[in-house]
TrEMBL record:
Its main location: membrane. This is Parvulin-like PPIase. It comes from Caulobacter henricii. Pfam families: Rotamase_2 (PF13145), SurA_N_3 (PF13624). The keyword Membrane applies. Gene3D superfamilies: 3.10.50.40. PANTHER family: PEPTIDYL-PROLYL CIS-TRANS ISOMERASE D, PERIPLASMIC CHAPERONE PPID. The chain crosses the membrane at residues 12-30. GO terms for cellular component: plasma membrane. Belongs to the PpiD chaperone family. It is found in: Cell inner membrane.
Length: 651
């Protein structure tokens, strides 16, 4: 249930750390774009508010997650065009509204619970990201703060978001546990899914339709204008990209054997496998009972039997190092015993207990040769990172002194690639992806003007880049001569499709006027095919009919005649001959099977209604203009463009 209510807007950190991808948001109306409420923040819900900087952080996390998933660069202008900015703003408004209402209910997770969840999440990160001391394994607040800072958050803001998640989870889980949809809901869905339809149809014979001749230039020019939006080539740019890569430099690093020995000596203890013990521990109510427990264990009595005599259960620990035992006195006693031995009563920090050691596994100290390759690999990485850093320093010094990107890269010995024209999506002008271009590089490049150069950007440990825009090629329709063969082929396919559709509609009209389906099919050089028992439950088995024909079949009334596309370029004339209800026994069985899904669906609807209700009751305010400015949109230029578009529409 927790996963069901964790959303992007309240977990921006999780988007980066766990790669969680944002699913579709429900889009509802909000304030007018250019006449938004005058707020100091982007969202105001009761006592809660979201600043422009916070909105930018959440938007950036969404953008990066989307780009990792799709490989497509998303600019701020594209986000506005696709309505993504509105969706994110509305989702944040809903989240903040719900959290404010829950706060008013008095539901507030304890600091201890929030801390436990934070530690659990930190423990689930990649080992290189976990904010724990690599030697002691203890939680490191400074590493934790630095990790959050890298992702645009502070401990307070992150823990507040976790607190909100826990509170919402408790509320919605409580509702969900007691919520069951009326049985009629499942029965109606079962009846809907099991309803079956009998279809009769014949395909239009392409041989009966006159094939179009080759198009003229005038026809192709007109076709280009009709499809200008699809055919216009997007803006592209010629880029010079400077890359410094520690990974690429690794083969050039020479390892000094003395450094290997020094590293081994320093890390010998951490590389060693510690001694472990398997043991049984029984907690005693007092010292006298502990003595009896020790005697009985020493005689060989079963630990479970001994423990039960004192109302206890034995604690069994298998293959644990000394550091894993929480009570230091118990640990000291256990690791002083041989296998099979029983301790005297131990008065530890957690009470009086007795332990019996069942197995001892000696520790092992590795030899230098057994870990040489591991240490050499680590030293090679470190050496390459140092080389990469030196290159960046040389590059930066030369660039600061006035050298352009290419000259500065040459002085640093760094790689430079000058590309062919590249779109913002990282493709060439034929739509093929260009390897080696990350979303971050593309975003940097398309935020620059012609001739502009970026700062040196670090994209990973030892990985850097800088970009120069050599040339900007504006979006434009290609010349007819450049695409004539391909365009002519599309025109012919389009024209043939139109003729087939017109033929299907004319034949369907004859059937509607009273001719039989068989007679019209025969006259058109075709034959009627019948497909009985098409239902929504078995629709997958009839995918060969095509999506359009299946949709038309389910939308038709009994006896209705219609024409439809059936596949890429095929058309049919069809008649819905019968509609049948499913069997009662099947409906009863499926009704019972789908009840959990129906309950879940009702819970989702109620959850969304609750969020919308919270937003309405609090009169939550949003400022779309400020949100757009936060992500780098020129709202003045956008307002003028919207006004111009509106003026053209009115004309």
């Amino acid at each position: 249930m927790l996963a069901g209510f964790r959303t992007f807007a309240k977990s921006p950190f999780a988007v980066i750390l766990f790669g969680l991808l944002i699913v579709s948001f429900a889009v509802f109306g909000i304030s007018d774009v250019f006449k938004g409420p005058r707020l100091s923040g982007v969202v105001a819900a009761g006592s809660r508010s979201v600043s422009a900087a916070d909105f930018k952080t959440r938007y950036e996390n969404y953008r990066k997650g989307t780009e990792r998933q799709s490989g497509e660069t998303l600019t701020a202008d594209q986000a506005v065009e696709r309505g993504i900015d509105r969706q994110i703003l509305q989702e944040i408004a809903l989240q903040e509204s719900m959290s404010e209402v829950i706060r008013k209910f008095g539901i507030q997770p304890s600091d201890k619970l929030v801390g436990n969840v934070v530690r659990e999440q930190m423990s689930n990160l990649h080992p290189n990201q976990r904010p724990f001391d690599p030697i002691t394994g203890k939680f490191d607040p400074k590493m934790y703060e630095a990790l959050l800072r890298e992702n645009g958050m502070t401990p307070d803001s992150y823990q507040a978001s976790i607190s909100d998640e826990i509170a919402q989870t408790h509320v919605f889980t409580g509702v969900a546990n007691g919520l069951h949809a009326p049985r009629i809901y499942a029965a109606l869905q079962a009846a809907y899914g099991l309803e079956s339809r009998d279809l009769a149809a014949f395909a239009i014979n392409p041989a009966t339709v006159e094939r179009p001749g080759n198009p003229t230039d005038a026809q192709l020019t007109a076709f280009m204008k009709q499809n200008a939006e699809r055919l216009t080539r997007p803006e592209s740019r010629v880029l010079s990209i400077m890359r410094v890569s520690a990974q690429a430099l690794e083969p050039s690093v020479t390892i000094n054997p003395a450094d290997v020995q020094k590293t081994f000596d320093f890390r010998k203890e951490t590389l060693a496998t510690p001694e472990t013990r398997s043991l049984v521990q029984i907690v005693a109510p007092d010292a006298k009972a502990a003595g009896v427990i020790a005697q009985r264990l020493a005689k060989g009595d079963q630990p479970a039997v001994v423990a039960s005599a004192f109302g206890q259960k034995p604690v069994i620990l298998n293959d644990k190092p000394k550091s894993a035992l929480p009570d230091r006195k118990v640990a000291d006693a256990a690791f002083s015993l041989a296998a099979g031995q029983v301790s005297a009563p131990i008065t530890g920090s957690l009470g009086i207990s007795v332990v019996k050691v069942t197995k001892v596994t000696p520790g092992a100290v590795p030899s230098l040769e057994s870990v040489r390759s591991q240490i050499e690999a680590e030293l090679r990485v470190q050496g390459a990172q140092a080389k990469a850093y030196e290159q960046t320093q040389t590059y930066q010094d030369a660039h600061d002194a006035g050298s352009d990107l290419i000259a500065a890269a040459s002085k640093a010995g760094a790689m430079v690639m000058t590309s062919a024209p590249i779109t913002a999506q990282g493709t060439d002008q034929t739509g093929q992806p260009i390897p080696g271009l990350t979303p971050d590089i593309l975003k940097t490049a398309f935020d620059l003007s012609s001739g502009g150069e970026s700062e040196l950007v670090e994209i990973g440990k030892g990985e850097y880049y800088a970009v120069k825009v050599e040339k900007v090629i504006p979006a434009a329709l290609p010349a007819l001569a450049d695409i004539r063969p391909q365009l002519a082929q599309v025109w012919l396919q389009n024209e043939m499709t139109n003729r087939l559709q017109a033929k299907a509609e004319s034949l369907a009209a004859r059937v509607k006027k009273g001719e039989s389906l068989e007679a019209v099919a025969a006259a058109a050089g075709s034959r009627v095919q019948r497909v009985p028992g098409i239902s929504r439950e078995n629709a997958q088995q009839h995918q060969g009919l095509g999506r359009d024909l299946l949709l038309a079949t389910f939308a038709a009334k009994p006896g209705e005649v219609f024409s439809s596309r059936a596949g890429q370029m095929a058309f049919v004339v069809a008649k819905l001959e019968a509609v049948r209800s499913g069997k009662i026994a099947d409906m009863a069985r499926i009704s019972q099977t789908i009840r959990p899904q129906v309950d879940s669906g009702l819970m989702r609807d109620l959850g969304e209604a609750a969020r919308l209700g919270a937003q309405a009751s609090l009169k939550t305010k949003t400022n779309l203009t400020l949100a757009r400015q936060a992500i780098g949109v020129d709202t003045d230029a956008l307002a003028k463009a919207e006004a111009a578009k509106s003026g053209k529409a009115q004309k």
